[in-house]
């Protein structure tokens, strides 16, 4: 297949490109050219600004693709440009969305909990919306305006050894220093997906599935915030200090008022097999502790 990946130079996007290459696909990565990639002559490269209409239309006019992965779309304007640019070639498009499109309901969230096909579209650029609202509106544009098949993949927090957000390191640094960590509800459950698993899911979604609309993708199982903090503490060998009220800079980036996680039942019903959170999370934390990159 001829495949275009917007982004694809870091974290799970990079792993996706690696998997696509390994599977024998003809891959083009479209980026601003500011991040060096390791793919050498295994991919084609297009330098563009994803946010500029003319750049997308020039790309669409110069080449056609079977599948497009949109990993760097954060606003309705971003989505509308792509929907219009590629409407003639009609590729299959995989939009990387997020758990943040859902309200927190204190239970497993299913795809129907956010209906992008009927969500009112408000136009605007990335600066006009927060992350969650930007993704909701981008999903809505793709669902209502695209004249080609779109699958919106809703991921929870993605973890991995190359996680540039350093959220695990945030906690380890504070535990090591004896600094308190703000958690308002230790019983709240949270879910994750590993970067390698996310890449595996995206490859399947684009090349082995015909599903359209929204789809949740998360590892099997959840963990309470209290148990997560204890896991960090155990792997580091130091006591964690948890407080319900702290300064903003000490609040955990995972802090939740109530449980917030995805049901992956729909994806499993289509045949995808997810990893068990309990199988990989302890090993990942142990690896981060061993590297001491915090």
TrEMBL record:
<feature type="domain" description="NAD-dependent epimerase/dehydratase">
    <location>
        <begin position="3"/>
        <end position="69"/>
    </location>
</feature>
<dbReference type="InterPro" id="IPR036291">
    <property type="entry name" value="NAD(P)-bd_dom_sf"/>
</dbReference>
<protein>
    <submittedName>
        <fullName>NAD-dependent dehydratase</fullName>
    </submittedName>
</protein>
<dbReference type="InterPro" id="IPR050177">
    <property type="entry name" value="Lipid_A_modif_metabolic_enz"/>
</dbReference>
<dbReference type="InterPro" id="IPR001509">
    <property type="entry name" value="Epimerase_deHydtase"/>
</dbReference>
<dbReference type="Pfam" id="PF01370">
    <property type="entry name" value="Epimerase"/>
</dbReference>
